Every structure is written in C-alpha cells, then in structure tokens.
C-alpha cells in the first residue's frame, strides 16, 4: 500500500535526509577529533553545549522540564550507549568497518519494533533491510578491510548499532505520544552528561576530561556537533516519527554512509570505485522502496 502523499510526509523525509547528511559529516569530524581528544571529553562537552543552548529557550517558554521525565531518562540511557560504544569503537575500527557495522542497525529495527509493539516483521522489511546491508557492505568496501586486532572495536560498534535501533523505535513512539520534543531532548542530554561523568570517574579518566587543553578549532568542531548533529538532528527525528514508520526512518538514516562516500570521493580522500558506486545505488533503491510503501 502506498503512503498517502502529504506535505508533512515529504517534509519528514527531507528532514531525515538532512539528518543523514549531517551525521555523515559528523562521522568524519568525530573520527578526526578522537585522534587528538579523549572520546568521553567529546561526548561530555558536546552535550553540555547542547544543554546550555536548550535551557534558556525552555525557561523563556516556561516549559516544565520534569514532564514525562521517565521517557527522557530511558532515551538518555540508550543514546548514551550509542555515543559511548560508537566513539570508543571508532577509535580502533577502520573507517570502512565502522560505516558497515554501525549501519547494521537497520537489521535490528524490525526486531526491536516487534519486541516493543508486537508487530512482526513482514517480507518487505526483510527485503529492504537485507538489501540495504548488501548495498552498505559494497559501499563501505568492508570486504577489503579486516583485521583481527579490530574485532573488539567492531563488537562495540555492533552494540552501538543495537542501541541506535532501540533509540529509533523509542523516539518514534515518543513522537506518536506527542511528548514535548524540546523537553525530551533536554532530559536525554542531561542523562548522557551524568552517565558520562560517572563513567570517566569509574575509569579514572576524570582528570583527563577536566584538564582540557583543546585548540579553538577542536572547540569549534565540538560546538558544531552539538548544534547541527545533536539538537537539530534529534528534533527533526521526533518530527519525522509522527509521519514515518520506524523501519522507513532507519532506511533513511542509511544515506549517512552514502553521503560520507560522496564527500571523501569529491575531496579526493578516497578513490572512486564501481563496486562502491553499485553499493550506493542498491542502498538508495532500498530506501526508495522502504519509504514509498507501508509495511
């Protein structure tokens, strides 16, 4: 059955494509940052900046920051898992493996949605999910890059991908309940900062995080991640969740590795190949099928 054409649906798709593009840039930026800055430092200051920007707006709007706090805490815990496992895994994994493994969340979304809502995955779910993974595998050239030394980092990325799937389903459910998207984002950001501080305290990294000697350039990058790859992305995702199914949202997120490939090809960081291009075409085809039909 076709989706009913509407401005809201088209706007939701456009916002998700924006999210995927920004996250592709964020992946490249974060990969560069972790070579100079402690991963937990990036997470903590990224979300502290996001909180600082959010609070004045919520105070001015006189919003109750404690409403539906249970949902905010749950989302924050899951999102913290995404960032901690994802960034730690990004430190040791190859760029190709990182793109492929993190993209596996599209396979987990139907299972998570089944567990949460009881809606069993249909044939179309499997077609688009498996097809997208095949396209992503070719696009990231993961078959050409593998090392036993990076296995532990790949495991972290797989765990992060599971958290991404859970977060997508939870965010969509929050959208369906019409929860305040600004308050919800603030709540999960606060949870992430608290858990990150606890994590660095338990792992004896607190001294490294508190003694920050980053360059102005690094601060600028983290601030950019806070605004464009955090606040704008999550608000857009909550909006899209009102008009798109969780599976369609997960497929649209797979534009991220495609955009990353285009960026590195255009910039000359990687060499264009027919195999990667065919993977991109397959991924786009699966996204078209996933967003054009309801399941």
In short:
With 295 residues, the chain is mainly α.
The average pLDDT value, as a whole number, equals 81
As a percent range, the share of helical residues equals over 70%
Strand count: 0
- Unreliable spans: none
Main sheet: strands, sense, barrel: none
Total discrete domains: 1
Report the sheet-strand fraction: under 5%
Describe the global form: globular
What is the CA–CA distance across the termini?
A: 8 Å
Task: Please characterize this protein's 3D structure.
It is a single chain. Helix content is 78%, strand content 0%. It is built from 13 helices and no strands. The mean pLDDT is 81. It has 295 residues and is mostly helical. The chain is globular. The N and C termini lie close together (8 Å). The protein has one domain.
Question: What topology emerges from the helices and strands here?
Answer:
Elements lengths: L6 H27 L5 H22 L8 H24 L2 H8 L2 H13 L5 H17 L11 H26 L4 H22 L3 H5 L5 H25 L5 H8 L1 H13 L6 H19 L3
Helix pairs in contact: 1-10, 1-12, 2-8, 2-10, 3-7, 3-8, 4-7, 5-7, 5-11, 6-13, 7-10, 11-13
Defining key terms:
mainly alpha, 295 residues, globular
